[in-house]
Design goal:
Elements: E1 3-8, H1 13-24, E2 31-38, E3 41-48, H2 51-58, E4 67-73, E5 88-90, E6 93-101, H3 104-113, H4 124-138, H5 141-149, E7 154-162, E8 168-174, E9 179-183, E10 186-190, E11 202-205, E12 211-215, E13 218-222, E14 228-229, E15 234-235, H6 251-257, H7 259-267, H8 298-310, E16 314-319, H9 321-338, E17 342-346, H10 347-352, E18 361-367, H11 373-384, E19 388-393, H12 399-403, E20 406-409, H13 422-441, H14 447-467, H15 470-481, E21 486-491, H16 496-510, E22 514-518, E23 534-540, H17 546-558, E24 562-568, H18 572-577, E25 580-584, H19 592-610
Parallel strand pairs: 16-17, 16-18, 18-19, 19-20, 21-22, 21-23, 23-24, 24-25
Antiparallel strand pairs: 1-4, 1-10, 2-3, 2-4, 5-6, 6-7, 7-8, 8-12, 9-10, 9-11, 11-15, 12-13, 13-14
This protein binds fructose -6-phosphate (F6R).
């Protein structure tokens, strides 16, 4: 969380940094600031709140230098305020930080003893003091950082400049990402490639406790011990206009509409072009680094994947939030199709519950950003225990992607709205393929059943186009739905995680109380909540659990609950019981969740919009959660 941008080059740093921060605002929007070289010193401008506040302050400012750093903040230590906004300046040092310095109390005490004047409540300012002290001794920014890095514990990525060495910028990290974009005689240092995609497609990924010295148009990277490291340069095929709104009012709405394409892009690489059989492509279990995956022999790689799947006796899926709910759907898919037992954990729980990890377990992590701190820690724990790991990420070359043994990609394109949408459906599509592949590897699945699943998956994009019509429906219905005091989302089987996801979307966007429940659990407690002020959102596809779920629906109705049901086709029975009935195209049980989630996303979007909330940037949240 927090977005950072550094620039050294011939362009106007103010423009480059602000345009980069705009792309990173999803990482935090409590305050923003820049520090840019001007007339031999570094001028700082900061503002509380969203980036637009900083932009208005900057309209009157000009800078003649060609070096600068910028920051958009998600508050950890210290309230959101201008005083706590980055960059922090101490002497001639200006510094921006993303993350948490765990030993900040110790550092603060020592600094106070040495007479430092601390002006903010942040842990970040303390690092600026340490660097300012060291440049006085070392007379060199890189050497000063090498000393300071030894003192820091926690999760951080940091950019620092010194007005006495205005030709350089130093970047270092341990935890949250830092990516270096390489242009013609110019260098960008950013938290996420999106911030520099307008200028370059060539990137270098800094690893933990490495230090980059950017000087002129060149970059040198050193280990914390001072040894120079040759870093590979990765050329990305993401296109800058993928991160624009393209006429939609919000990124979230655009991303909801991109879901049919996202599903196609997720599955296309993994189907044999002639037979349409599942052939997971270039997963890399044999150990190739992520940059080399495209160069693998696909046939050999597929054999490695089958052998890995065949060799496992259980699966453990670890993720957070929406990605965790995708993991819950996967449990039903993998257990049914491959007969392999699956456990699903919230990453922050997994790490600390001392999980019993048996050797024949495959640990699968799911993360859109590939940077979620708890999920990253989980994959590291699994590796420490000697287990094989497989990551499903959207962002290629992200930290989780780079740590995993095997790699699958959501292929959704950049997801900018803070609430995850298209990455969720892409993940469900990928899990369908993984379940089929595991089923085949284990001999648990006939060719015919596998084909049936692939056909069902191929039908999803066009079925989704139909479901997107609920955009208009909820644009009209939102006003009347606002009156409810709470929302209970329910489903059974593979639709139960969709109830959880629907409730999460409503909570995080509309700030309304919503809970997801397994419909069969209602009578064990939540039924007491139901009266005429409670909306019941029931996901009831025509599958083998239909009758049971309808009984649960009747129980809710009998207590006065107002029912919004989501079912298959023109279901007169559901229509009769419900205030509102949303019809889904007839789909396979395994692909129903991909369709059911769409109206729930649209409902949350429209309720939040009609309540006047900022849908793309919900309060207190940030997209890439790089702190524990
Ligand atoms: C909810 C949402 C979050 C993320 C969670 C994990 O809409 O976006 O719950 O799903 O923070 O993020 P990733 O998938 O990047 O690890």
């Amino acid at each position: 969380m927090c977005g950072i941008v550094g620039y050294l080059g011939p362009l106007n740093p103010k423009d480059v940094i602000v345009s980069g921060l705009k792309k990173l605002e999803y990482r935090g929007y409590d305050s923003a600031g820049v520090a840019i070289l001007h007339q031999g010193s570094v001028k700082r401008v900061r503002a509380e709140g969203k980036l637009k506040n900083l932009e208005s302050k900057l309209t009157a400012e000009s800078f003649d230098g060609h070096l600068g750093i910028g920051h958009t903040r998600w508050a950890t230590h210290g309230v959101p305020s201008e005083r706590n906004a980055h960059p922090h300046q101490v002497g001639g040092i200006s510094l921006v930080h993303n993350g948490i310095i765990e030993n900040y109390l110790e550092i603060k005490e020592a600094l106070l003893k040495r007479g430092a004047k601390i002006t903010s409540d942040t842990d970040s300012e303390l690092v600026a003091h340490l660097v300012a002290e060291q440049v006085e001794v070392q007379r060199d920014l890189l050497k000063a950082v090498q000393v300071v890095l030894k003192e820091l514990r926690g999760a951080f990525s940091i950019l620092v400049i010194w007005d006495q060495q205005p030709d350089r910028l130093v970047a270092f990290k341990d935890g949250p990402p830092l990516v270096i974009g390489l242009g013609q005689d110019q260098v960008f240092v950013v938290s996420d490639v999106q911030a520099a995609l307008n200028y370059t497609k060539k990137f270098m990924y800094l690893e933990d406790r490495e230090i980059a010295l950017v000087k002129g148009g060149a970059v040198q990277v050193y280990s914390s011990g001072g040894v120079e490291i040759r870093k590979p340069v990765v050329e990305l095929n993401w296109n800058a206009d993928l991160v624009e709104k393209k006429g939609y009012s919000h990124f979230m709405l655009k991303e909801i509409y991109e879901q049919p394409q996202a599903v196609s892009s997720a599955i296309a690489p993994h189907l044999d072009p002639e037979t349409q059989a599942v052939r997971l492509r270039n997963v890399g279990f044999a150990g190739a680094p992520v940059q080399e995956l495209e160069n693998l022999d696909s046939k050999e790689d597929w054999q490695d994947t089958l052998a890995t799947f065949n060799g496992i006796a259980r699966v453990s899926i670890v993720a957070c939030g929406t990605s965790f709910y995708a993991g819950l759907v996967a449990k039903y898919l993998i257990e049914t199709l491959a007969q392999i037992p699956v456990e699903v954990d919230i990453a922050s729980e997994f790490r600390y519950r001392k999980p019993v990890l048996l050797k024949d377990t495959l640990v699968i992590t799911v993360s859109q950003s590939g940077e979620t701190a708890d999920t990253l820690a989980a994959i590291r724990l699994a590796k420490e225990k000697g287990l094989k790991t497989l990551s499903i990420c959207n962002v290629r070359n992200s930290s989780i992607d780079r740590e995993a043994h095997g790699h699958l990609y959501m292929n959704s394109g950049p997801e900018v709205g803070v609430a995850s949408t298209k990455a969720f459906v892409s993940t469900l599509a990928i899990f369908n393929l993984v379940a089929v592949a595991m089923g085949e590897a284990k001999g648990a699945l006939s060719k015919q059943t596998a084909t049936e699943h692939v056909q069902a998956l191929l039908a999803v994009p066009s079925q989704m186009e139909v479901v997107l019509a609920y955009d208009k429906y909820f644009a009209d219905a939102a006003d009347s739905l606002k009156k409810f005091k709470g929302f209970l989302y329910m489903g059974r089987g593979v639709s139960y995680p969709i109830a959880l996801e629907g409730a999460l979307k409503l909570k995080e966007l509309a700030y309304l109380h919503a809970e997801g429940y397994a419909a069969g659990e209602m009578k064990h407690g939540p039924l007491a909540l139901i009266d005429e002020n409670m909306a019941i959102v029931m996901v009831v596809p025509s599958d083998e659990l239909f009758e049971k779920t309808v009984s649960n629906l009747e129980e809710a109705k009998a207590r006065g609950g107002k029912i919004i049901s989501i079912g298959t086709g023109d279901n007169t029975r559901l229509k009769g019981i419900s205030e509102r009935y949303l019809s889904m195209p007839k789909a396979h049980w395994s692909t129903n969740p991909l369709l059911e989630v769409v109206p729930l996303q649209l409902m949350a979007f429209h309720l939040a919009s009609s309540l006047g909330h900022d849908v793309d940037q919900p309060r207190n949240l940030a997209k890439s959660v790089t702190v524990e």
